[in-house]
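Hello, quick one for you while I still have it in my head. A protein chain has come my way and I'm curious about its shape. Can you walk me through what the tokens say about the fold? No rush at all, and the record is pasted right below.
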Amino acid sequence: MEHLLAVAHDRLKEVAGERERAFRNKDVQLEARVQPDEPDKQDWWAWQIIEAAKKQAYYAELNRSHRWISLSLRILEFQVGATQFVISLHAVSRAADLYATAAFLTWPLGGSGGRAFSGLVRSGD
């Protein structure tokens, strides 16, 4: 799992740099950060991971080893929360050594209060 997380981290760092350059070419300041999970934050995306698994008809077992990494994108002049692309690596059901990957987006809704909307990213979309 650590190797897959490292691959995802490296690719998201590349994407972050590409997005920052693309926005800078249009004179827009973009903050792009790759954020790996931390022990005290591993459950941050639990609801979204479980919902993504349900939509793909499997059970995400988050009581076993699971990790996530996210790419956070925020346009500085808008002064709103960041859009986040999250990749989760987690166990499937109680099957031994069977893991899945789910990816989803979250973005801030208008106004304040920390509300966000999440959407599943399906392969081929």
Remarks:
- The CA atoms of residues 89 and 97 lie 12 Å apart.
- The radius of gyration is 15 Å.
- Residues 2-120 form one domain.
- The beta strands are 30-36, 60-75, 83-92, 99-108, 116-120.
